[in-house]
Design brief:
By secondary structure, this protein is an alpha/beta fold. The protein has 15 helices and 13 strands.
C-alpha cells in the first residue's frame, strides 16, 4: 500500500508489457501470470506478450489479461523486433518487464528503440556458464536495463560468473499465496481421491519432468525408503520429456506399486495438502515456486542444497537440506522425517510461518511495483 507522502501517488496509470519467452507450465510462467494479474490497477495496467502459445497464454486469457503471441521464427529473429516494436508503440507501453534470456535480450533492444525502461527478471542459471554469447548479451542488457535476480545465490552468480555489475542487479524473491488451512476431513478426502491409504506416508514432488529436477535420484532413494518403510507412497506431479524414461526407471527398480505419475494437474494445492512430505531433489534452482507452495501449506520439506533453496529452507529449522545427486543421503533424510513425526510436523509449521513472513505474493508485488515506479520516475 502506498503511503500518503509517496512521490508516485499522483503518477498516472502506466501500462506494463509482461514479456515471456516461455509459456510453461512452470514456476517462472506462474509468476508472470501472478504479477500481471496482481498489480495495483490504480497504478499499473498489464499487457502480456508471449513468444509461443501454451499454458501461460490460456491462464492469462482466463484472467482477462490482454494477451498477444509474437512468434519467433528462429533463435535470432530480427523481424521479431519490428513486430514487438509495433505492439509497444500501438499500445503505448510505458515499461517492459521481461522474463528469461531471450525475452530479456530482445525486450532490451525493443525498449531501447522505444525509449522506455526494461526490467529483466532472471529465474535460473543452469545454461549460462558454457555460453559466451549469452554472458556477453546479459552484460549488454545490464547496461540498459534493471536486472532482477530471484535469489541472493542467483544475484551472486550473475555477478561472478556472468560478469554483470552488482549494482545493476536487484534481488526480488518470488512469492506465493498463503492457502487457508484445511480440515482433517477434507485432507482425508484428498488422500483418498489420490489413492493414498490412511496408514501410508505420502511423499510428493511437483515439477516438470526434466533432468534438472532430479527425479531419477529421488526414485533411487525411494527404493531404499521402501525397504525400511514399505507403507510409503510417492506422488509425482508434472509432465515433460523424461516421462517415458522415468516410468521405465520406476519399473526397473521394482517400485511401480508405490509410485503414481499424476501428470499435469490444476489441483496442486489439494495434492500438497494431502502430503506428509514434499521432496525437491533439483540439480539447480533459482528460487523454487513449488518449494514455496509446499511450505505455504505447512507440508514438511526435504530439498537439495542448490540455488536459492537454502534461502527458503533453514536446515534443521524449517526443513532439511541434502547434497544434490546423492540418493543415499536423500533416502536417509526422508526416513528421518518418517521416523520422527513430531519433529517433522514442527518443520512444517515453522516453514509455513517463514514463507508467510518473507515469500508472499503481496510482498513480491510491492517490490516489483516500487521498482516499476523507480524506473518510470524519470519518464513521467
Amino acid at each position: 500500500m502506498r503511503k500518503r507522502n509517496d512521490p508516485n501517488i499522483d503518477m498516472p496509470t502506466r501500462l506494463i508489457m509482461h514479456l515471456s519467452s516461455t509459456s510453461g507450465p512452470g514456476g517462472a510462467e506462474m509468476l508472470v501470470s501472478r504479477i500481471a494479474s496482481g498489480l495495483d490497477q490504480a497504478r499499473f495496467r498489464s499487457h502480456v506478450a508471449l513468444f509461443t502459445p501454451g499454458w501461460l497464454k490460456d491462464r492469462c486469457e482466463k484472467a482477462s489479461l490482454p494477451t498477444v503471441v509474437l512468434p519467433m521464427q528462429s533463435q535470432w529473429d530480427v523481424a521479431w523486433l519490428a513486430r514487438c516494436y509495433a505492439v509497444v508503440r500501438s499500445q503505448r507501453v510505458d515499461l517492459i518487464h521481461a522474463h528469461e534470456f531471450r525475452a530479456n535480450v530482445y525486450g532490451a533492444i525493443v525498449a531501447k528503440l522505444c525509449g522506455i525502461p526494461l526490467v529483466g527478471t532472471v529465474h535460473g542459471k543452469n545454461y549460462y556458464p558454457d555460453h559466451v554469447k549469452r554472458r556477453m548479451a546479459y552484460r549488454w542488457v545490464s547496461k540498459t536495463a534493471t536486472m532482477v535476480a530471484v535469489s541472493e545465490d542467483l544475484r551472486q552468480f550473475l555477478q561472478d560468473q556472468v560478469g554483470v555489475p552488482r549494482d545493476r542487479i536487484t534481488r526480488i524473491y518470488n512469492g506465493v499465496d498463503m492457502p487457508e488451512r484445511l480440515s482433517r476431513e477434507k485432507v482425508a478426502q484428498f488422500r483418498c481421491d489420490l489413492g493414498v491409504q490412511p496408514s501410508e506416508f505420502a511423499v510428493g514432488i511437483v515439477g516438470s519432468l526434466y533432468p534438472v529436477k532430479g527425479h531419477r535420484h529421488l526414485f533411487d532413494a525411494f527404493r531404499s525408503v521402501l525397504k525400511s518403510h514399505p507403507k510409503t507412497k510417492l506422488l509425482v506431479v508434472g509432465q515433460g520429456e523424461l516421462e517415458p524414461s522415468l516410468k521405465q526407471q520406476v519399473l526397473d527398480l521394482g517400485i511401480d506399486h508405490a509410485v503414481s505419475f499424476l501428470g499435469l494437474r490444476n489441483d496442486v494445492p489439494n495434492i500438497l495438502a494431502a502430503l506428509d512430505l514434499f521432496v525437491l531433489p533439483s540439480l539447480s534452482e533459482g528460487l523454487s515456486v513449488a518449494l514455496l507452495e509446499a511450505m505455504s501449506t505447512g507440508v514438511p520439506v526435504v530439498a537439495s542444497r542448490v540455488g536459492g533453496n537454502p534461502e527458503i529452507v533453514q536446515d534443521g529449522e524449517t526443513g532439511l537440506l541434502v547434497s544434490p545427486e546423492n540418493p543415499q543421503e536423500l533416502a536417509a533424510r526422508i526416513l528421518e522425517m518418517i521416523t520422527h513425526r513430531e519433529k517433522t510436523k514442527l518443520f512444517g509449521e515453522r516453514g509455513r510461518e517463514w514463507v508467510s513472513k518473507h515469500f508472499t505474493t503481496a510482498r513480491m508485488l510491492d517490490h516489483y511495483q516500487d521498482l516499476y515506479a523507480e524506473c518510470l520516475s524519470g519518464t513521467s
